[in-house]
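Query structure, 487 tokens:
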């Protein structure tokens, strides 16, 4: 049974790439009846913030992958520092690490021949244990460094489940720190200590960590633990090919941007899955269960995945399309409940009952819930925004025809049975009587009540708006027509 972990550092909001890493871990675990561990990597006290932790939890909760932020086990790295230090000292006791007393600010300058990578300080690496113990006992600060076994080992190798066999010469791996001079563990030490202690079987994380993995393999071995399997995930990149970053690309990299943009959580999950993973069946729209059923690490690609956005539109068209598909499949009550906050946020007065009435009329027309403000505005407002009188003129008709149609409609709507079939029959009969095509009758009415030609089905719209509003708006349209034709 696999045990996987997602290990965010609470130093910013939940990044799109981190969300994808979490989802791939989660899918791998669910597909294989494994365990998902959420571990907060919060040992860097200077950079951690509670606000960041809250926003990571918010982002994970929005993804809606289950209770407890979608995880089965939860740990805070800051509560496990004793373990990290103990395991670092175990490595030291085995002779696989040494104390480096070089004052931090001199480390690089002291030893690096200019331009070459700094690997280690020979005087420190080769210090006798007596001297090392004496200086430590005297209270001299030191960094505990891993003694990379360059004499006995040519390379560190591991088989990445995505990128294949990886190898790096030990001559190119520096003697990295396990404990800082303040006695606290480094990321490498804390991460591997926890991964070993929590019996993590698969480390699935961003490709930017691949170079760390050589060091991690060395630590696992020094701990006497079998290194877990590694699967590194391709990077997410911007349309211009650069790595997605908050600094450069702003809010598009934050999960909450999609949440606030009116996406369903599952659409976003589905979209993220398609960034760097292709299912065998080549399907795109998949339910949560389908994703769980078909997810394998073999389907993860090696090439970077592009997230598309522009300055004007932060949302990837594929995500928008997936969301429109999912909105179409929503039960109407859920559609109404999810769209309501977006209508309210756009400043409209409405309620759940009205949203429930509107829901079937907009289901095919909204791509994200934010569209409610532009697709359904005329349901919520008292008076329509000004529109062009020319819109009222039917195809192959003129202003006189529009006026005749609207006048007839005004009479008909006063007495017609105000339901779909009643309005349908009465307005068609009205068109016949006027000698115009039904479409020539309906278009001026549609524009009069909605303020535009592109609108939901007419009779249902009239019913939801109600007799009084329809009559009022038709009256307004006649005034608009009159003013423009006499001007
Ligand atoms: N806390 C690390 C990060 O956020 C975890 C990396 C890892 O998965 O080992 O980058």
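Result returned for the query:
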């Amino acid at each position: 049974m696999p045990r996987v972990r997602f290990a965010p550092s609470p130093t910013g909001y939940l990044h799109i790439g981190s969300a994808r890493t979490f989802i791939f871990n989660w899918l791998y675990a669910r597909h294989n009846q494994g365990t998902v561990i959420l571990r907060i990597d919060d040992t860097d006290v200077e950079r951690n913030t509670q606000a960041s932790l809250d926003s990571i939890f918010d982002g994970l909760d929005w993804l809606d992958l289950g209770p407890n932020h979608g995880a089965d086990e939860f740990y805070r790295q800051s509560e496990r520092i004793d373990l990290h230090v103990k395991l670092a000292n175990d490595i030291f006791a085995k002779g696989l690490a040494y104390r480096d007393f070089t004052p931090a600010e001199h480390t690089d300058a002291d030893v690096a021949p200019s331009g070459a990578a700094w690997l280690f300080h020979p005087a420190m690496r080769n210090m006798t244990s007596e001297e090392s113990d004496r200086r430590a006992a005297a209270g001299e600060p030191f960094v505990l460094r891993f003694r990379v076994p360059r004499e006995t080992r040519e390379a560190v190798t591991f088989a990445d489940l995505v990128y294949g066999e990886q190898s790096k010469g030990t001559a190119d791996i520096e003697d990295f720190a396990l404990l800082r001079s303040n006695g606290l563990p480094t990321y490498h030490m804390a991460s591997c200590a926890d991964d070993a202690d929590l019996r993590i079987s698969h480390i699935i994380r961003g490709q930017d960590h691949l170079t760390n993995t050589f060091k991690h393999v060395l630590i696992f071995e020094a701990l006497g633990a079998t290194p877990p399997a590694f699967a590194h995930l391709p990077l997410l990149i911007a349309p211009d090919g650069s790595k997605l970053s908050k600094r450069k690309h702003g809010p598009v990299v934050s999960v909450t941007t999609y949440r606030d943009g009116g996406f369903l959580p599952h659409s976003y999950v589905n979209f993220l899955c398609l960034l760097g993973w292709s299912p065998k069946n080549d399907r795109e729209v998949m339910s949560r269960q389908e994703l769980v059923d078909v997810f394998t690490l073999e389907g993860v690609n090696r090439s970077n995945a592009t997230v598309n956005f522009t300055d004007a539109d932060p949302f990837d068209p594929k995500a928008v399309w997936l969301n429109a598909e999912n909105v179409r499949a929503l039960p109407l009550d859920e559609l109404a409940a999810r769209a309501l906050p977006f209508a309210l946020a756009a400043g409209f007065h409405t309620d759940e009952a009205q949203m429930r009435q509107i829901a079937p009329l907009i289901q095919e027309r909204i791509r994200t819930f934010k569209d409610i403000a532009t697709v359904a505005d005329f349901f919520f407002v008292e008076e329509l925004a000004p529109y062009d009188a020319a819109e009222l003129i039917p195809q192959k008709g003129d202003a006189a025809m529009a006026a005749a149609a609207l006048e007839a409609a005004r009479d008909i709507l006063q007495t017609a049975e105000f339901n779909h079939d009643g309005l349908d029959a009465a307005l068609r009969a009205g068109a016949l009587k006027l000698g115009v095509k039904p479409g020539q009758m309906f278009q001026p009415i549609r524009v009069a009540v909605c303020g535009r030609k592109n609108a939901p089905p007419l009779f249902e719209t009239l019913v939801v708006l109600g007799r009084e509003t329809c009559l009022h708006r038709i009256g307004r349209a006649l005034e608009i027509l009159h003013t423009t034709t006499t001007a």
